[in-house]
Design goal:
Its EC number is 2.7.1.26. It comes from Rhizophora mucronata. This is riboflavin kinase. This protein is 17% helix and 29% strand. By secondary structure, it is α+β, with helices and mostly antiparallel strands. The protein has a six-stranded antiparallel sheet with strand order 4-3-8-5-6-7, with helices on one face. A two-stranded parallel ribbon has the order 1-2. The chain is built from four helices and eight strands, in the order βββαβαββββαα. It has two domains: 31 residues, no CATH class; 145 residues, Riboflavin kinase-like (Elongation Factor Tu (Ef-tu), domain 3), CATH 2.40.30.30.
């Protein structure tokens, strides 16, 4: 018999040494590791979830996305979203992003503590899968999150982190073309007409 632990507090996995596996959320459970049949609801490396929305003005982040990683992110403030963020585990998600003056784009997004950089605060870091001319600080960004890709994890090197982020982007890019996800591109929330 094996024991799987799901800590209720972030950064507490060290307290579960007796567990055979410590996972971030039940989204990360892999029954095949325990001799059980795998879940059949994963589609092209993604898990469909009940869509949820978050939005706000794009803020300046730590400056790591563009400068260090070469992956520009459109950061959102977590102020006012603590209840919403506590409902959704840290990890990498996919969905659609509506920019008030530019349109709707595919997005892959990290929510979490960014263990490689040892953040002390949970962050929301969407990467819009589109090439933009310049930044859009202060613009209204609305997100419709429709799927889950993987748990937040630490990486042994900056190169392995960047490679995994690019892989996440490729997974999201392909999956969002599926009818299951593409239908959410027209979500009224993205255009600012509904909350």
């Amino acid at each position: 018999m094996g024991v799987v632990a799901v800590p209720s507090l972030p950064k507490q996995s060290h307290l579960y040494m007796a567990a055979d596996e410590v996972i971030n959320s039940l989204l990360d459970l892999r029954p095949e590791m325990w001799g059980l049949p795998p879940f059949e609801d994963w589609i092209q490396g993604t898990l469909p979830i009940e869509p949820w929305h978050i939005g706000g003005a794009v803020i300046k982040g730590f400056g790591r996305g563009s400068k260090i990683l070469g992956i520009p992110t459109a950061n959102l403030s977590t102020q006012g979203y603590s209840a919403l963020l506590s409902e959704h585990p840290s990890g990498v998600y996919l969905g659609w992003a509506g920019l008030s003056t530019r349109g709707v784009y595919k997005v892959v997004m990290s929510i979490g503590w960014n263990p490689y950089f040892n953040n002390t605060e949970k962050t929301i870091e969407p990467w819009l899968l589109h090439e933009f001319d310049g930044d859009f600080y202060g613009e209204e960004l609305r997100l419709a999150i429709v799927g889950y890709i993987r748990p937040e994890t630490n990486f042994p090197s900056l190169e392995s982190l960047v490679a995994k982020i690019h892989e996440d982007g490729r997974i999201a890019e392909r999956a969002l073309d599926l009818p299951l996800y593409s239908k959410f591109r027209d979500d009224p929330y993205l255009k600012g007409s509904a909350l």
